[in-house]
Design a protein that fits this description.
Layout: E1 8-18, E2 24-34, E3 37-47, E4 52-57, E5 65-66, E6 70-75, E7 80-86, E8 94-99, E9 102-119, E10 122-136, E11 147-154, E12 159-166, E13 171-176, E14 179-180, E15 185-187, E16 190-193, E17 196-210, H1 222-225, H2 228-231, E18 234-246, E19 249-261
Antiparallel strand pairs: 1-2, 1-10, 2-3, 3-4, 5-6, 6-7, 7-9, 8-9, 9-10, 11-12, 11-19, 12-13, 13-14, 15-16, 16-17, 17-18, 18-19
Length: about 260
């Protein structure tokens, strides 16, 4: 492997759930090793339909336990846990980049799952969700990306997952129900391809701002630790009620999607 001598290693899980009524939960958990820095962290974003709440722990958090049929995640420090049960959906592990600076491996583990989220010992949210794992041995500030677009749509009968890199090394990947969509076009309003489209009917902002004021806010001295390109990185994440039209059939579901500007 070209990246075998890299001193940067990040393994990051993204896990989400949206109820039928539009309440949402997103969990992030990661293990980062870079030079003398080692961080194991977990955080969540909870959305009650109107307002978002975020909490973060940097105290020796554990990565999820993954099997063929489930992903189990628990954070005692954050007093919450979740269970993502696969509904039979499968997508391949994909190497998005591999060069002299390192690699990026994207694993959309469960693109369609039944989810239960607990706070304390009490059930808080049930719904459909998504689980993925990202592994990087290239520092994010060396990625050949100017703009990242990512999203996932889930309904009872369908899922769509997409990722697009814009910049020096452009990349577009869209998967629908396990099949790669070769001719998809991604825009701020949704997706379109020869056989159909995905359109957002109603959207709520879950989080937006510079990374130093969002994701990195809980890390003391983040502005001194990380390069300016990361500190000043801008993200905006939405929850949208969306409609997929495919061969004159309409599928209604929820989309979580984001843009990141480097």
């Amino acid at each position: 492997m070209l990246d075998k001598h890299s001193n940067f290693k990040l393994k990051k899980w993204y896990l989400d759930c949206v109820s039928e009524n539009g309440e949402a939960f997103i969990a992030y958990c990661a293990d980062l090793k870079w030079k003398s820095l080692g961080i194991s962290y977990a955080s969540y974003l909870a959305f009650d339909g109107r307002h978002s709440k975020t909490r973060t722990s940097l105290l020796q958090e554990r990565l999820p336990v993954s099997s063929e049929n489930s992903v189990l995640w628990e954070s005692p420090k954050l007093s919450c846990a979740g269970n993502w049960r696969n509904r039979g959906a499968q997508l391949p592990k994909i190497q998005l980049l591999n060069d002299k600076d390192g690699s990026v491996v994207w694993n959309p583990r469960f693109p369609l799952a039944d989810v239960q989220i607990d706070f304390g010992s009490q059930p808080w949210l049930t719904g459909l969700g998504y689980a993925e794992c990202l592994e990087l041995t290239i520092p994010p500030w060396k990625l050949p990306i100017e703009k990242l677009i990512w999203g996932r749509f889930v309904s009872q009968d369908m899922y769509i997952v997409w990722i697009e890199w814009r910049g020096p090394t452009p990349l577009t990947l869209v998967y629908m129900n396990g099949e790669k969509v070769e001719d998809a076009s991604i825009s701020d309003s949704g997706l379109s391809w020869s056989q159909g489209s995905l359109q957002h009917a109603q959207s709520s902002v879950l989080r937006k701002g510079d990374l130093v004021n969002t994701v990195l806010k809980a890390i003391p001295g983040a502005e001194e630790i990380f390069p300016r390109k990361i500190v000043n990185l801008y993200e905006c994440k939405w929850l949208s009620r969306s409609n997929v039209t495919l061969n004159k059939t309409v599928y209604c579901g929820w989309t979580i999607h984001e843009i990141v500007r480097f």
